[in-house]
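Run log, item B.
One chain of 737 residues. Sequence copied directly from the ordering sheet:
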Amino acid sequence: MDIEQLLKEMSVFEKIMQCTQLISSFYRGTKVEDNAANAIGPYTQLGLKQEDIYLAGSVNFLSDETGAMLPASELRRIQKECMERSPHHIPTLFVQDVIHGYVTIYPIPLAMAATFNPDLMERCAAMAAKEASMNGVDMALGPMVDLARDARWGRVAEGFGEDPFLGAAMAKASVYGYQGRQDKKAKISYEHVGSCMKHFAGYGAPEAGRDYNLVDMSELTFRSFYLPNYQAAIEAGVSAAMSAFHAFDGIPVTGNKKILKTLLRDELHFEGVVMSDYAACTELITQGVAENEEEAAYLSLEATCDIEMMTTVYAQSVPVLLKQGKIKMSQLDDACRRVLTVKERLGLFIDPYRQCDEQKAKTLFLCPKHRELAKEAAEESAVLLKNDGILPLPKQGKKVALIGPLASNPRILGTWRCGGQEKDSVTMLQGLQEKIGANNVVYARGCDIDYRGTDEREIPLAVQKAKEADVVILCLGEDEDDSGESASKTNLTLPDIQKKLYRAVLAVNPNIVLCVFNGRPLVLTEENETARAILDCFFPGSECGHAIADLLFGDANPSGKLPMSFPRNVGQCPLYYNHVNTGRPRSDEYHRCWNQSAYIDSPNTPLYPFGYGLSYTKFAYGPLRLSKKVLQQGKADSLTVSCDITNIGPCDGKETAQLYLRDLVGSVVRPVRELKGFQKVFLRKGETKTVSFEIQEDLLAFVASDFQKRAEPGRFRVWIGSSSDVIDGDEFVLNKE
C-alpha cells in the first residue's frame, strides 16, 4: 500500500475519521442519534451522521448487550460495510480489551506476575491472540504495564505489581505473545494481533489509590520506577500506546505534549499509534484545561494523540482549527499516517478480514490445549501464604467441607474477562468433586460475596457442615468486579459478612484451609493468625477448580511468589519493598520507636513481602559465591554471583531464586534493595542445583539527579534468596575507570 499516495487522495474529513474510534453498537442497528450518550464518560453529542460511522478508523467494544463477544461473521459484515462505504475502501481496525485471555481465560495479570515466568506469560498471551485473531480482532488493548504500589487502586489486578524489573520482563513477554517475535516494523502474522500498552504514563500511582485521580510524583521517581515497564514494551515493538486519564504535572496526559510528544515519541522513539482512553479527549474540558471541544481537540492533536476513543472533538473541531491555522495539515497527516501504517503492519490492506473465521474460532475456544495452558498458569500463579503442615490434603480418609461464597461460584474469571463466560468456568466445587468424589465433599455457601451483604441466615448451615467435616476449605475474597477499573477501596479486609462466616466456622473446626480469591493484596492479618493454611488463588480463570484442586491435594506444588507486598492494614498503603532509607530508619518493628520513621500502632513491614511464597517442600540456600569482589568500570567487565539451592523437603518442587542488589552510597538515595534477576528452577527431592547471575556495570545503573542513567563507583551489597526479605548477603566494589 502506498500510504503517501493515499493520504494525498483522502479528504480532510476522511483523515479525521481515521483518527476516530467508535463502539460496535453503532454498526448493529443502533442509530447515532440514539447512541449519543457516552456509555462510560460524560454525556456528549457526537454530531455524526449515520453514514459517517463507516469512515471511522477503528471500532471498539466488540460485544453484544450480554457481554458476549461478537462472532466473526458479524465483524466480517461490519468490515464489509465499512470497506464498501469508504471512498478509498480503507478497512477499519477492530480493537478489544484482551487482557488475560479471549474466551479461554487465564489468571489476571497480577497473578501471572506471581508466576515469575515470562515464558508462560508469552505463551498465554499468544493463546489469547490466536483466539482473538481468529474471531476478527486486530488489536488487543493490552498489556497494562502501569507499575502499582497501592493496593487500594483496583486496577492493580490488570498490571504486574510493584517491581519494575519483574514488570518489564512480563510486559515484554506479553507484547511478544500478542504480536509474535519480529522486527518492530515487520508484518504481524494472522495468528497474532497488534498490542497496545496502557496507560501512558504513571497511571498506577493515583492519589489515595482512587481511580482517575491526580498523579503527583517527582520526575526522578517516575523515571526510576514507573518508566521501565513502558520502555520494555516499546523495545518489544508494541504497536500502540493508550494515553492515561489522569493529570500528570498538572496537565491531563491526553493533552500533555511533554508526556506524549517529548517523552514518548522524541525520547523513547515510539513510532506507533497513540489513542486516548474512553472519552478522555472530551474529559479535558471536565478537568479544566480546555474551555470547549475546540480547545480539547487542539491540545490532543498537539500532544500527538492520533485516535480519540468514543468522542468526536476531532470531527467537530479540526476543520475549524485548520482554517484558523492553529494546527497544520501536516499534524493531521502525521496522525492519519500512523493509523494507516499500523493497519498495513497488520496486513489489513491485503486482507481486511485477516483470519476472521467463525468455525475455526469455535474449534479454538476452550479447546483442550488452551484449557490445559490456562490450568498450568492457574497452578503456577497461586501463592501459598501459610501452611502448618495441613497441606497437601489426602485424597482419601478425610471428609471435606467446602464452604464460602466463592466455593461454587463461577465468578472467578476476574476483571476484563473479555469473551470468557461464567458458564464455562470450572468452579471449586466441580474441581473438588472430580478430584476426590462427590460423596467426600459437603458444600455450603455460608453467605453472599457482596461486601455490602448482611444476611447471616446461611451461616448456621455452614457451621453444621464444618462440624461434620475433618477439614474445611473456605473460599473467600472479592467478587470479580470488586477489583479492576473504577473499583478502588478504602478497606482491604474480607467483607464483614465473610468475616462472620470465617469466625463462626473457626469456632467449631480449626482445621481451616483458606482459599482467597482476589484482584489485589488483601489484609489477612486475622486469618494469618488463625487459619492452618492460606492459598492465594487471585482470580485463576476458566480452569480454576481443576487447578486449585490439584494444588490442594498435592498433584501440583505451589510455586507462585507475590508480585506485590501484602499490608498488615490499609494504613500502610502505599507499601512496597524497594523503598529508600530515611535518616532515621526504624530499628524495632514490634515496639514503639521514638524519633524514627515508624508507626506507633503497627510495624512498617508487610504481612507478606514482595517475592514471598511457600511450597510443599523446603529449599535450602547455600552461601553466596562471588567470582571476584571488584568490578572495573568502563571495561565491559563482569562478575558472577551464585549459590547452591537444595530441595531438603519431602517432594519435588519449583523455586524462584531472586537476585537483589543495593547501591550502598549514591549521589541520590538508593532503595534498600532492588530485584535485578530471577530464575525459576525445578528441583527433585534431595536434588541440588546452582543458580548463577552475571553482574555487569549496566545492571548497577540508576537514574541520577540529572535524569541520566549510569552506574557510580562504590560498594554494593548482593543477595540471592526466596523473597525480598532475604538476610544473608555479600559485598563487592565497582571501581572507577
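Observations after the first pass:
- DSSP finds 19 helices and 27 strands in the chain.
- Residues 28 and 78 are 8 Å apart (CA to CA).
Flagged for discussion on Thursday.
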